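---------- Forwarded message ----------

FYI, see the Protein-L-isoaspartate O-methyltransferase record below. Original note from H. follows.
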Amino acid sequence: MREWGCSGRSNEELINNLSTLRDMDGIGTILSSERVIAAMKKADRKHYVPDPSSAYEDRPQPIPYGDGATISAPHMHAHAVEHLAEKLQPGARVLDVGSGSGYLCAVLHHLVSPDGEKKGKVVGIDHMPRLVQWSVENLKKDGLKNDTVFVDTTKGDEVSPADGKLTMVCGDGRQGYPPGAPYDAIHVGAAAPTMPQALIDQLANDGRMFIPVGPEYGLQHIVQVDKNGRGEVTKRNLMGVAYVGLKDRPA
Ligand code: SAH
């Protein structure tokens, strides 16, 4: 994966650097919308990494309690959020599959539930129970104590997400999270060997999904899946990537 050399000494500096550096095609910058920049500045990456001394480096970092999971590099999160940005309006419903550290859920929350505006819903789902608990602790440290709800579907919990809340779910993300559906935007943070139909079904009309598809350690592409107002689905390959796999929970 490409290193962008836009690391910073603080969260603010990291995000400022991401917003001035050219994209791979040299046409735009990685981060361009003011709303996304503001949301990324509100989520401080140091709360979501095991080694805060390198929190503002533009690289992935291994995270605990996962099956080889990493928090993605900031430029990858920026790319993903920019591609979904028009669907992340105040009041929108969002699903983040493979939520890992919880970092991206915080950014999504700031976009769909900004202060003083209509409140949206963010559902994060990951299949490692201890990792989901850790992500909840991270979100609380990052100022989202009263907004975060933990749901463990492996213990039979099923909670309907509430407006303005971040619902962090332990469960199999390939099945989505029907109590929160339909979703205006779905982000998938691990590569699906084949396109999961359950996630397409849970996408709202006029919704968009950003999903890496392909074998773990093989040729993968980010696919942007759009559902139009009549429920018709179109798919577009955005770029080649290397994500860990979306798979069965290790025994
Ligand atoms: N986007 C997150 C983590 C990405 S790593 C971050 O930046 O912090 C990919 C995550 O997908 C891991 O946390 C892993 O536990 C999770 N994962 C893999 N298979 C899964 C499945 N079937 N259901 C839910 N989560 C899964």
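H. also flagged this: DSSP finds six helices and ten strands in the chain.
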